[in-house]
Amino acid sequence: MKKLILARRFSQVFFLSLFIYILWSTGRTASLFKIDPLIAILTSISERVIIPGIIFSIAMLPLTFIFGRFFCGWVCPMGSIIDGLGIKAKNRPLNLSRIKYYIFGFIVVLAFFEIQIAWVFDPLVITARFISLNFIPSFTLAMDRAFIFLIKLLNFYAPLYDFYRGLKSSVLGVKIYYFPHSVVTMGFFLVICAFLFITKRFWCRVLCPLGAMYAIIAKFSILRRRVDECGRCMKCKINCRMSAINEDMSYKKEECVLCMDCIYDCPVRGTGFGWPVKAAKEQGKAAISRRDFLFLIASSFLLSGFKNKGASGAGKKLIRPPGVLSEREFLNKCVRCGNCMRVCPTNGLQPVIFESGFSGIWAPHLVPEIGYCEYNCNSCGNVCPTAAIPKFSLARKKEQKLGLAYIDKDICLPWSQNKECIVCEEHCPVSTKAIKTYEEIIGGKKIKKPYVDASLCVGCGICQNKCPTRPERAIKISP
Amino acid sequence: MKGSVFERLPNKKISRKGFVKLCGIGMASLALDNALLKFAFGRDDVSTGRVVKRIKGLHDLVAADGIDPYAITVKAVEAMGGMGRFVKKNSVVLIKPNIGWDRSPEQAGNTNPYVVGALVDMCFKAGAKRVNIFDNTCNDSKRCYENSGIEKIAKEKGANVYFVDDWNVVKAKFSYKSPMEGWPIYRDALECDTFINVPVLKHHGLTGLTLSMKNLMGICSGNRGLIHFDIGAKLAHLTDFIKPDLTVIDAYRVLKRNGPTGGDLADVFDMKTIIAGTDPVLCDAYAAKLMDKDPLSISGISQGVKYNIGSADIAKADVLIINA
After folding, report:
1. Tell me: the pLDDT tens digits for A200-253?
2. Interface predicted TM-score of the whole assembly (ipTM), two decimals
3. Is A169 on the interface with B (CB under 8 A)?
4. Rounded distance, CA A250 to CA A269, Å?
5. Which residue from A132, A231, B122, B168 has the fewest beta carbons nearer than 10 Å?
6. What is the pTM of this model?
7. Do A375 and B102 touch (CB under 8 A)?
């Protein structure tokens, strides 16, 4: 019985399921990133603010000091997926583990220069993005289509149809989400999984900056591996998925993720984990050399010159979520986790690809033709882990202007064809109607022609969403 | 690469016959697949509308005033002859309230939930097998269903409250020339034994008031904004297509300005009236009168009269007014 491995696997499955569950049940997503110190601390540093809930992520640090990189081996959803997919993958020794410290150091240095790029390589963010933008939409779509097929095949058999309707209002969701650009996030995730062709846990060994952050603390962790008896068969060294075990049976504590494999790989059961009886002298090289560190600082200085080149001015093209005022601050705080896009009830929040420059990739923007900003909803601000979208009360959110509607009189049916329409006025959620109408009598018929009252319009985009003209809408939101 | 997919591929050459055979099998399976998919997804159903015998009530129209919306709804329907007159034993009833907006009951954007609740109770008491409730909402449907309070009350009383499926529609076919020809209509709106239309009386920018005929837009799928052009005739034809058995207009709380969305409580006043009737045009005309509007100035009503779907002549109608 490999009890410890079973326990580890159970923990991995549990936390991965929890992770998916939290993302699936919209509304509770905020709690998710609170345990991610990389995101919380670095965003706090780069934005010079204390992110709400940062205490949870700081609490992870003393835990790591006691147990080592338990997070990577037992909790991290990305690690669990990589382990799951990589059961059959080959394990090769690699000597590249220093790279992740460079990545981590680079991120930290940039954070002090008010540039926050922790999200690019943070494993929780990458997994959340993949689950929210790819996994859940495709899974629900497949379920939905399967049910429709079955229902039609059974000629609308009532119990099955009722079951489907029940699912729709509970698990499946009323709306099947759709993200036109999500293939990019999918690709990013697949590349990380494809590293399994090189070796097991390539990502965790070589690239993960969160892993690096934990590794620096884990180097001094209290729990440690001991070898009581050794036949020098090297099985543990060969099988170690983090290649943390050295030739002389000492081990790189900062690399060990406590997967517990080595305990059961050992034919004489001569190894285990435990608390130190007496203080042992630290082994191993420094994670990063002094020369490399200086090089890192210097290169980061150079890079900070490019700070937010893409964002300046370019942001004017996009409609940002409600409450976002400064484009620069928004792009810096946003960790691109996709939570807001997951909870947006109309599916209107979509990831940006390159419309706002390279630095704006994957940040959310509103696409009114897919979905508008629901007037009575402040979910996106509630779930944003870094308050890039401010958390506003409903009353305050309703005052936020996302943009301004304007009417293209060449397309608008009442203006161009004297047809009755004013669907925009009908849907306008502002209680005194931001869209007003002129009345004109044409051919004995009263035609109401809409115009926008700029002082009332909140730019929610429902008018553009519901405007019946095709292919182009006659009313559009400009940011 | 050792052990790669390419290495495991059979290294056999294919004969000409084999190749032709392979192509044939491929094409056949594609065709079969296509036919199967077409059978499952591509069925284009057409309907010529509900076929019903119009059941007359004891009066042409009943208007009940009172403080409790539940009680006056019951009173109004009982004065019409009771729900048993319209709902047969073991039948399927569709109640179509207005759940179009993400608004609370106080804001009067949607039908009063207690009015819907009263109708559900009466239907089950009359022996209905199943009561369906749905609406094609304008705002996000989940939020509308929850915040209107209708989902909760109707589900407690045993009704089936569900969201519309855009794949489950039939195309409308008219015996006369109609601008609504071919419009997708949700199947359940047609496949029911009794259709009860429960609109809320409120202001509307385009039509002046939104009433029972306008409420039928909630059973339409497709790009509904286009219905707004020539809306009177379209609503009249739609009403003729559905032929609602019973119309219950909720004029308990009335939104007098900035409709149909509203949102400001200052725009809402209490009229505390429920109107019940079998003639949708007459009900609409009476409701318009309550709002001091000329019924014929509302395009749906005037077109309804023109196409002979109902009468707007309140003076000639047998109207019973109850004060509770």
Report:
1. 999 999 999 999 999 998 888 888 888 888 888 888 888 898 888 888 888 888
2. 0.84
3. yes
4. 16
5. A231
6. 0.84
7. yes
